[in-house]
Amino acid sequence: MKELAAEHNMTIHQVIQKGRLNQATISELMSGRTKHPKVSTIQKFCDGLEISLHDFFNDYKFS
């Protein structure tokens, strides 16, 4: 998540604010305590980055 944010010249905090995400949810994901995020959470993260779900999942990191 940090890497994707950095690629878009943003901090995680900026993505969280722009995507209207819950800080606790992101903390759980980043720490590995949550392994299966909801699609709605991923969508909000994408909204914060201003990318589509398609672009998110087509990123080289998923190859």
Word description of this protein:
The protein is 62% helix and 0% strand. It has 63 residues and is mostly helical. Helix 2 packs across helix 4.
Task: Tell me the layout of helices and strands.
Layout: H1 2-7, H2 12-19, H3 23-31, H4 39-49, H5 53-57
Please supply descriptive tags for the structure shown above.
globular
Structure described in brief:
The protein has five helices and no strands. By secondary structure, it is mostly helical. α2 crosses α4 (39-49).
Helix count equals: 5
Cα distance spanning the termini? 16 Å
Query: For the residues shown, what is the average pLDDT?
Result: 92
Strand fraction band?
under 5%
Gross morphology is: globular
Rg for CA atoms: 11 Å
Class based on secondary structure composition and strand pairing: mainly alpha
Count every beta strand, where a strand is a DSSP E run of 2 or more residues. 0
The helicity comes to 55-70%
Largest sheet: none
Succession of helices and strands: HHHHH
Low-confidence stretches: none
